Amino acid sequence: MYEVNHYFSQLPQSYLFSRIAKTVADFRAQHPEAEIIRMGIGDVTRPIAPAALEGMAEGIRAMGSADTFVGYGPEQGHEFLRSAIAEGDFHSRGIAMADDEIFVSDGAKSDIGNFPDILDSHIRVAVTDPVYPVYVDSNVMGGRGGKLQPDGRWSGIDYMPCTEANGFVPDLPAKAPGVMYLCYPNNPTGTVLTHDQLKYFVDYARTNGVLILFDAAYEAFVSSPDVPRSIYEIDGARECAVEFRSFSKTAGFTGLRLGYTVVPRELRGSDGHGGQVALRDLWLRRQTTKFNGASYVIQCGAAQLYTPEGREQIQATIDYYKSNATMLREGLTGAGLTTYGGVDSPYVWCKAPAGLSSEEFFRLLLDRCHIVTTPGSGFGPSGEGFVRLTAFSTHELTAKAVERLKHLI
Amino acid sequence: MYEVNHYFSQLPQSYLFSRIAKTVADFRAQHPEAEIIRMGIGDVTRPIAPAALEGMAEGIRAMGSADTFVGYGPEQGHEFLRSAIAEGDFHSRGIAMADDEIFVSDGAKSDIGNFPDILDSHIRVAVTDPVYPVYVDSNVMGGRGGKLQPDGRWSGIDYMPCTEANGFVPDLPAKAPGVMYLCYPNNPTGTVLTHDQLKYFVDYARTNGVLILFDAAYEAFVSSPDVPRSIYEIDGARECAVEFRSFSKTAGFTGLRLGYTVVPRELRGSDGHGGQVALRDLWLRRQTTKFNGASYVIQCGAAQLYTPEGREQIQATIDYYKSNATMLREGLTGAGLTTYGGVDSPYVWCKAPAGLSSEEFFRLLLDRCHIVTTPGSGFGPSGEGFVRLTAFSTHELTAKAVERLKHLI
Fold this sequence. Notes:
The structure is a homodimer. The first copy, chain A, is of the alpha/beta class. The first copy, chain A, has helices spanning about 5-10, 15-30, 50-65, 80-90, 110-115, 135-140, 195-210, 250, 280-290, 295-305, 310-335, 360-370, 395-405, and strands at about 35-40, 100-105, 125-130, 155-160, 180-185, 210-215, 240-245, 260, 270, 275-280, 340, 345-350, 370, 375, 385-390. Chain A has 13 helices and 15 strands. A seven-stranded mixed beta sheet of chain A has the order 2-8-7-6-5-3-4, with helices on both faces. A four-stranded antiparallel beta sheet of chain A has the order 11-12-15-14. Chain A has a two-stranded parallel ribbon with strand order 1-13. In chain A, α3 (about 50-65) packs antiparallel against α10 (about 295-305), α4 packs parallel to α10 (about 295-305) and α5 (about 110-115) packs parallel to α6. The first copy, chain A, is globular and about 60 Å long.
């Protein structure tokens, strides 16, 4: 009989978001009359920008006629979109970027999950704590986890705590890892790194030969002038960092599925025999072998986001969510709670009052306010004592949530 | 410095289809006046069925309004599509299938490439020869290749030759492997297995504890009554086979991207410690961790293919390609060439005349007839001496190709 990948069996059974969904479903069954406000999972609610809708409609029209039909596209993405990305997200901000360093895909989660494929299975991985579970789980599946410890950490992974004490700037591991995941604006804490703070990590990575896997899924929420939207705003980042981008939060593409990954030519890993290999070439090989490109129709929609109308429309949506974040942050603070994030981010990281645990506070908010949050402990041990709230609801429901919170404590 | 996955470096540099594209581009540059007919890569040319276009347009309209907006969907695919698939592709043909055994994705290539993730890295893999390169390359990337031999075979992989001598029914490996890839109707040979022939493989797999990974991407082209369209038409297949399906060839979704994988509950692999693990659970875990579902809009389009109108429309396109295949097969035979396939398949496998090699015959067809084919040797050693032609061109170009072939020999 064939054997399965036994690393899978080491993963705890229940994925965080599935577990929460079940708790909420149970609550709903018991309280069918309650108006539940969902601020747990980071899904968006605003409609897709008209420019993108028109782009997709155009793509569909093309598919309806033999003269304009589009079959297999380049695995890396259509040139019209990659050049729009290079210009709109990089050149326009003074960052050099070649079209062929950009790899369009069906979403950042796929790319983040698959990227470790091209790295050695014994590489040491460092993650911030708390952390988006995909970074950890995908490496455990790839054999890099070691053993799961009673404290919820994996022996093979280095954790960089982000706490109130260090101002949510990650503590570096004792020994330089091979790969370091950073996500800024951060999921789940909503905190950011300034230009100087991020430069510290870039310099560290270059000095120590570390590859930074930088998740910039929330960059569109940055408005503070000293906070970078791309790691490539930092000198030297092209030599040490891959960047993952998503259209999910920027343009509401959570159900449409589109993202991209930047792999600069300068990135080189060791081949284990004294030679070096360009990561861009490996990722291209991975994608051409195991992926067949993102949907043409969705790429047509995304390209329209880079027009003046498209930019204006998605900025209006971002502003909408940002004003929710402000409302939420001020509401929580007004209710006597301590919060972090929510300024350059759609996430507010709220401290549990009176020594409650994450899960106790999560239950309290569900039971008393009918608000669904995410327990911080689900993101790692250093998330204990916090919950994450998202600003992706409507103005009306966010205002209602804030009203309910007033009477919480 | 971090190390890369050194198995990638073992792969030959050039992917078959990229190499052909370059040869053709060079030819075009040298002969700008030549009308080149592309029968190499298996991409389709007919427009998308009106039913699917309308389904996608409806999906886009939903995305334009907050009331009907759809965000993250289930990683396994929306229930409306999975139930349409279960009914339309299985129940209607008398095959039992639960909705939650069906995993919708962005395409069969992704699923085929990613599926080995859930299997042990030391598992022995068997493939037919010739073979779709993705089966081999994805396993080499996963460390199962061993060493590349001078004859183009990998020492760690078992090859099952499909030749004129055995009527293109694969020879079984000397020792039972852990996993066996089968693709029927076959890419590249266009040949099929009858119900009894496929039953032989299913029985072998059950007796020997082998997992069959069955690629049914071309099932829509089957019209012979004794040729199965799904491996689950064979008794016992639920206990030994995963099936990959694609909307690419069935409905022209090569640029839209959609496929699905069937993982029956009965499939169980060894955990290496005397226990057994359900493959369905592992694949679900893999997909929820590293994938975020296929695009809602494209799923809306696919669901409409299962309506009476949708079925009729895609059948008309399949019939169109099938009549091309007949024209091509008869034209090649009429020109004195020996062919296989092309009956229940869009591929015709044509033997090189006068002892020419695959590449020589490929060059001859390009130079003399301006027809692009795929050299059979690119699919493995047993493909030597053949080229693959596809029926996905237009009637007009196929007729023109046949006309040119008349004067070849």
